[in-house]
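Figure 2 data, in text form.
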Amino acid sequence: MMKRDECLRVLARHHSDQIVVPLYQAAFEWSVIKPWPLTYYGFGAMGLGSSHGLGLALGRPDKRVIVLDGDGSLLMNLGTLVTIAEVAPPNLIHFVCENGTYEANGAHPIPGRDVLSFTGFARAAGIEKVYEFSEIDEFERSIADLLEERGPVFVDLKVEKGGDYEYRWDLVHGPESRRAFREALANA
């Protein structure tokens, strides 16, 4: 099992100019690990991170878009996988951090946590490039290639809670981060 923040640090070392759409716990961690103006914080839209990422990928086909989703969040909007497969944006990579809980809401277990398969959902939806990692070394060896693959790419990261991060509501909901994102996107 990997720590989520360790996975994000691996990603940050390979991140270049991609748009990043982190949700909930991943957003708080990403904001510390890799402050980046092309970060679209998808807060207040549980379940819609993949939809927001898809919209950005379609709207900006010249930019790679990385979604950092949670398993509880994706579970609320599984239909987005079918839409992603249908429109097949070549610039979208969708990571789901699977820990079996709605972590942002008190770590309550997600339904079906012991039987469901997010990679199975993605494949059944028609996404062809589907990966799963539970070991940090294997993920680190693969990340550079994953970020270069023609999308859509779906990656299930089997994670557990990492370090403690301050909940920066002012950042994820604040007008400054929205303005910085708009400006960075306009100039990218």
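Caption note: The chain has a mean pLDDT of 91.
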